[in-house]
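WARN no homologs supplied; continuing
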Amino acid sequence: MTIQTHILGYPRIGVKRELKFAEEAYWRGENSQDEFLEKAYAVEAANWQSQVNAGLSFLTVGDFVFYDSILAHTVRLGAIPKRFNEASKLNQIDQQFYLARGRAPDCTDVAALEMTKWFDTNYHYLVPELDPAQIFNADFSDLFRQIERAKKYNKPLKVVVPGLLTFLYLSRVVDDKKTTDAPNLKKHTCECSTHYTDANTNIATIKFIDALIPVYSKLFDDLAAYGIEYVQIDEPILVLDLAPEWQSAFERVYNLLQRRDSLKLIVTTYFETLAANLNLAVNLPVAGLHIDITREKSGDFFWKKVIDQLPTHKILSLGVINGRSVWASDLVKLDEIVKTAQKSLGERLWLSTGCSLLHVPVDLKSETIPDEIDGKLAFARQKLDELVALASGYIYINEKITRAADKAFDLVGQSRLENFASRFKAQHAKLNLPLIPTTTIGSFPQTAEIRAARAAWNKGNLSDADYETAMKQEIAYTIKEQENLGLDVLVHGEAERTDMVEYFAGLLDGFWLSKFGWVQSYGSRCVRPPIIVGDITRPKAMTVKWIQYANTLTDKIVKGMLTGPVTILNWSFPPAHRTRREVCLQLAEAIRQEVSDLQDAGIEIIQIDEAAFREGLPLRRTDRAKYWDWAVKSFKHCSSSANIETQIHTHMCYSDFKDCLPEIIAMDADVITIETSRSGLQLLEVFHQQSYPNAIGPGVYDIHSPRTPDAEDMRIVIDGALKSIPAERLWINPDCGLKTRNWVETKAALTELVKMAKQVRKELETT
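OK structure emitted
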């Protein structure tokens, strides 16, 4: 009996990040669009060839996009916000880049679309903005061209399309009547934010269902005309705590969409089980359903409940291969599941990855793997082979992946003894900072010189001493430029760091760093998540030498820069033998030791970044209490060695924090810096509504966009912040670190930041 195999998506960056380099060369004007497309389509072709070589039943088409799938779908639908009015001069490729970056050839710079995390992953999607009277002018011609390119492989094709309801759920409505013609993100007002984290979300975007159904119907008719038999409709919001209005919308939408016998819709879910949406999902009038069994709790066997309730004519695609883990699958264990499912489903059983393989590195073949983990890993390409092995019954025992669980680890978490009011008073007296002090988030541009020195050092062509000298020169330059700019609290710039997590992983025991294990974070931004392979300990101080050196170069305060335990965990691949709680507490102890050493070295402000603090939050509310318990406990433990006068900062990146303010308050950082420029001032309003008691530094400009803001743009954020935050507890800073920007952009933006901060400070001091 044949079992059909397919995947939900494949990494689109290329084995050696070919897409990233092609995009960035195109943005710099070094390549034409045709040259860019030639390189991009080579990656696309390589992805399809990998699927053919592995022997998958279907080629997946539509998952390969240049920046982000939701962004590509937004442009295909013609849902371009009015502030991008010049986008009409561009083709769809440049329109995508314009919306994502705020910059395009021969167009005025504008604020880019908001960017936020894709469910509980470190991948970022671009949030669609819909006008209250949105009209969709769809054009899917690029998707059809992609289908034509795929046909030459002579394999059955399965096309991927974002689900109508998931697209609307992740969108927001922007009321342009409340804006001016100026292209400032701070001047557009969101009517609602239907972010997935809010189970009782405003249902305003549901009103676009009737406008989109004809668009989807036409698309499906066209796909059928192209000879497509199966369409993968991604509806991951079916794993969330959906409000009744959204549940009802699913029934109505799919009753209207599934009207053609020649085209079979497979509704696809991932990242969790269906839970309360089980009955709704199995009874949708579609040809099949995909579920992710890799996220089931141990012993739950929710997939059996799906099989029991699935109508007997429907396909069930079982996501058996973990698309978010780098560890090899236990094929013997999975084979038992497959055989049980096959007895009930017969040829209606398909096998797949739990989710898209976008979230794991591309291929192991270029890696030199240590003996202790050899045979235990599987990247995207290897997961294809695992999938086909399960379907074909070619099962082998991998003894290398079986091991006894380590001895349980626990930690009695510690906290700072003094309350914020006492600490703030002591810190104010010692630090002697001006009103609304200015600072940056930590990193400064990673220049070509820095990368060249690091590459030479890694190859053995530069000695340790010469590399240290080169990094100190970069640190000295960064300190000097910050002094020239007039910033109040300086940073050393992180020249010696490749990545905020990878750097610490390289200095802690218990990690393995791959050479080519890149994963897309957003657009052309790729990260190389470390792999946790054992117990985590800190053999020696990690940052003290660099921060202490920077501190000798200036009379101003230099922040110590650390990455927090929750972020290191969430941006690494966790071990197969430890709970996330145990790993996080081990990390917290290592960072606590580093805080103590920095403090002993005379560092007065220490920033412990928790950019991913919310990222690992379970998607369902009933599962969140345990996560928050150990996440907050871990942060408080790593800051517990700070004395009353040492000021602890933390930074949080692009995410939705409105449902976790109590936990952020419980972290008890002296200063929190947050993103506000892309998401407007709504987040600050939430902090105000919940009476956040500590100090806040709202990001006054978006560092991910190459456009240079002017001081007046920043003034809008500052004035908005002052309505919610007392001036004595307000800091001014960019949204995020500056490593991806160049020095020209950085100096221009920070000049405006300091200029406006000084102007506002003067006004406050004279009133």
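The two ends are 81 Å apart (CA to CA).
OK
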